Automatic annotation (TrEMBL):
Keyword list, A-Z: Oxidoreductase
Source species: Xylanibacter ruminicola
Gene Ontology annotations for the cellular component aspect, listed alphabetically: membrane
Record-given protein name: NADP-dependent 3-hydroxy acid dehydrogenase YdfG
GO-annotated molecular function: oxidoreductase activity
Family, similarity comment: Belongs to the short-chain dehydrogenases/reductases (SDR) family.
Amino acid sequence: MSKAIIVGASSGIGLEVARLFIQRGWTVGVAARRLDLLQTIGAADVEQIDVTSADAPEKLMQLVDRLGGMDLFFYASGIGKQNRELTPDIELATVETNGLGFTRMIGCAYRFFAQQGRGHIAAITSIAGTKGLGPAPAYSATKAMQNVYLQALEQQANARKLDIRFTDIRPGFVDTALLSGSFHYPMMLKPQAVAREIVSAIEHHKHIRVIDWKYRILTAVWRRIPRCIWRRIKL
Ligand SMILES: NC(=O)c1ccc[n+]([C@@H]2O[C@H](COP(=O)([O-])OP(=O)(O)OC[C@H]3O[C@@H](n4cnc5c(N)ncnc54)[C@H](OP(=O)(O)O)[C@@H]3O)[C@@H](O)[C@H]2O)c1
């Protein structure tokens, strides 16, 4: 493994993961919309990609060509907002980025690895996909979709005898721009620490990694809460 492409590397968790892979001597290509930020990371190559745009797969493949191949596709792009008023623009933009954008880019990487005969797809989803979260309906629903999509691809790859590995990374609250705003978030994690756990999970070929241990306990409890109680909980 030596060549990684990181989509969503311009800030937050994706940026920290890119830095770690560069430090480890990987050849790293980075992408996102904010080209100026990407250019400061010290990656081998950069590409401006908007995952909501139809030309995003073509741009990803151009980056792969320039890098001379791809062993790891790491997907960190995403948006998320609390939306208790259910403002349509917020809900629809979230579905467009986290649903359509995710499907577009993960699908492109999967087809590339299927043709190549091997590869590793890792994506940051979230613990928010564990249950429907009232304060952020589109966010939690799209994260659940991402969890299930990766599970489906993993099964399909096995059935097709493709040597493609998958790592579904599910962090709890992380101190990044995504959570900036007036809300208070408990049990906040540092993006650098989260990035270290992510790289370790990828290196150890983990299928699913909830970050960190406190959130592993929390999600295990959440999963056991029956629907008749869950719908009465105020988050
Ligand atoms: N922060 C948390 O508490 C938390 C918890 C669990 C999971 N996550 C997930 O972690 C991932 C990274 O988020 P973060 O917390 O690191 O937030 P962040 O700092 O806001 O990073 C988001 C990244 O996604 C990219 N992005 C957003 N829309 C894009 C688009 N249309 N096309 C291409 N790239 C796009 C951004 O780049 P540009 O704006 O330059 O395009 C940026 O690099 C997200 O999927 C998020 O849902 C975050």
